[in-house]
């Protein structure tokens, strides 16, 4: 081999080594751009937010053990308890009084004792009643106190208790035993012997205090589909008010527009040929209304959202931080999601933001539909927030959190992954401008927000509860409705109450009204309420006095009293309504937060209705009251089964007290009228079925605080737009190489049913 050949080979070898070294160095640098960001620094490293934390499973178990050993009465587990026995209905954390919490959070005061609220049904007493006990301190309870009379002004009558799962099973057994008395009718009308028919409860249960008489609607049941769309036309009225189950009775039967005293009478009418029967066939799974099974094989994967360097938010216990935001989160087993101590840049904006109630009120020409006014808190908005499906209910890479509850059992239950937290890219600018005059530049910021979400399944409906935190200091609260419509059997003039959506199915019209509590503390606890709106004034132009100009001018008004601040549901709301601080911003305006409501609510129940006071919060799209510790909620879970003598009547909160420089609460109602239509089959879609409200800074800052967001983009005609150091968008091509390793898909949501 010649020297020249050796030198050439040596040169090639050196070049190869150099290239490999460059590749290795490049590969060594790449992972650094993909390294996870350090978690956002906590501003409460000592766990102050735990003062609001839900009970742990261990704390629940300790409370049950304490109650079993210290009440001196026999307690039967609620899942087995007869109405004539005593049981623990449910537990929740007892959130301390606001003054105690603020002394602890803001002034270095002692941590308030941790306590639980225990609700018990005492059926085995001379006067059966519902009792609420506060048990503490946790984790090792040593005392309890009865708070029922202090909270409600008297004892709670036993008939107001929500219906338990055990009671529903016993009612079901009664109904199916009565159906056996009409075998020929069932075979003709429903192609059934009754065993495959399922029941759906209505509520409230009667027409006066003390009633516990409920209409149940019967449906064909097909496994894997929504039975709510397959009514058979049969409905029964059950009296289940007696403490002895053996005394419960079927009071009335309805079929296809006619009423009967019993299933036996119904059978006699059918045998005599005096009954018009609509002969239904057993629905088949492949053709039944309501099947959600895919009709096509899977296509290409949809877009996937991921965080190249990991989450830009932090979740520690019940505390979340994100780009200046911090808050504590939790879940009431009845009323659902609740947030506390919401701060932006270290300043508290909201002390409490919580869901209060969800009302669904129906119309129909069938007795079950026409008498239905569901108050979902009594069923369990928080308790029935089940496991979320990764990648569909929330982004695949969201943070998923378990929630624990104890209801109708002595053993805590866990809804795994039932709350999710994620940063959401709306694919929309938060703000932007392209300058094409004088100087050429572009400035903008993407509209990213932190979302905390949970989804409740309440019989047929699914409610998606969102709380969103924007980088401009705004909070957005939103609810989407989906799931199945409820339906009636189509007969007579049924379409006066909805639309036909199947061969014999009437989609019944209804309203959804949702109520929230917003305890705003804007630059301190003491706030006032101010409205701003526009008027036109007609003025002569000042430069010639010969022409008229229609000039908009601003009308500001301080609302001094509660009566002025109670805005009826369907009346115009001031376009700007703000909680204002006594303190000015840099420009001399009061630091404020504006409430902006987005709602399409139907009409509220007429005030002359015997049950209207139980939902009197629905009179108002917005009402502002003085905050009082004895007015913690706008309603009660006991209102559902005795709406005629409501345990809590929100209308009583409004008594014209002064609102100037006080600790104030905004109570907000949002909702929509739903007239079901063909496109609600199989499911109602979320598109167009979303309502909510914003809390927006209004002169709270001296400029938009999002200017400090590191995601801001600025391009000029004089810079290199492709330089990663100056333009974060230019870094995305390399960031895309940091796609995360996705955890395997898992779903265990059926395990707790």
What's the layout of helices and strands?
Blueprint: H1 3-34, H2 57-70, E1 86-94, H3 98-107, E2 115-122, E3 129-136, E4 143-146, H4 148-152, E5 156-157, H5 165-179, H6 183-190, E6 197-201, E7 213-220, E8 231-239, E9 249-255, E10 258-260, H7 263-271, E11 313-316, E12 319-322, E13 325-332, E14 336-344, E15 347-362, H8 367-370, E16 373-375, E17 399-405, E18 413-437, E19 439-458, E20 461-470, E21 475-483, E22 487-489, E23 498-500, E24 505-508, E25 510-520, E26 528-540, E27 548-559, E28 566-568, E29 576-584, E30 590-598, E31 620-626, E32 664-674, E33 690-698, E34 713-716, H9 732-735
Antiparallel strand pairs: 1-2, 2-3, 3-4, 3-5, 6-7, 7-8, 8-9, 9-10, 11-12, 12-13, 13-14, 14-15, 15-16, 15-25, 17-18, 18-19, 19-20, 19-34, 20-21, 21-33, 22-24, 23-24, 25-32, 26-27, 26-29, 28-31, 29-30, 30-33, 31-32
Any overview of this molecule?
By secondary structure, the protein is mainly beta. It has three domains: 52-159, Roll (Nuclear Transport Factor 2, Chain: A); 165-272, Roll (Nuclear Transport Factor 2, Chain: A), CATH 3.10.450.40; 318-428 and 451-524 and 558-698, Distorted Sandwich (Beta-galactosidase, Chain A, domain 5). It has nine helices and 34 strands. The strands form five sheets. Strands 17, 18, 19, 20, 21, 26, 27, 29, 30, 33 and 34 form an eleven-stranded antiparallel beta sheet that branches. Strands 11, 12, 13, 14, 15, 16, 25, 28, 31 and 32 form a ten-stranded antiparallel beta sheet that branches. Strand 3 and strand 4 (143-146) form a beta hairpin. Mean pLDDT is 92; it is low at 19-32.
